[in-house]
Fold:
Amino acid sequence: MGLREIKMERTRQLIADTAIALFSEQGFDATTIDQIAAAAEVGPRTVYRYYPTKEALVVGFTEDTLQAALEELRGLPEETPLPQALYQVVDSVRRTIEGDSERRRVVYQVINRTRSLHAELRGVNWRWRESLAEEIWRRAGGHTAEMVAALAAANIAAVVEIAIAEWARSEDSAALGLAIEQALELLRTGDVPIPVSPLAGPATV
Structure:
């Protein structure tokens, strides 16, 4: 990365950090782009250059976290067993959040109490899930690969969402990793109920 790129990344991070601090102090809706620009000592145009909307200042943290996990999956050797490769996805999310836990907790709190951010975040999560399913499909093979990939991606997205919610409610620094492991174990053991049609009849042994 060149000097210009480093400077741009620092500016981008400064704007995001400043915005999150203001959102936490006075609320998302009450904070303006002009206030963010003034606090970060940049012009409003500079803020818009890096973040086209105010919502992007918040959901960008989530988008970066999820994208990093997807890129880690894409970078794994093709011969990596799929279950291990998929574990890397959720573990990447854990490592990113735990490496920046204080700020990520604030981001989660801002999102959680701001209704206007919910739809934006749903869009980010949906696009990530679709991209994840495509990569799983590419690796899985077989005539049911597309459906398997979609189900696997949905499970991963659910594990990440539920584990982060558990972590946000806890003050334990290890809560995220513990919640991820618990959720994965429940899926592995079959303790999570799966709908069965009454027309299927009783299970056979």
Remarks:
- The two ends are 60 Å apart (CA to CA).
- The chain has a mean pLDDT of 91.
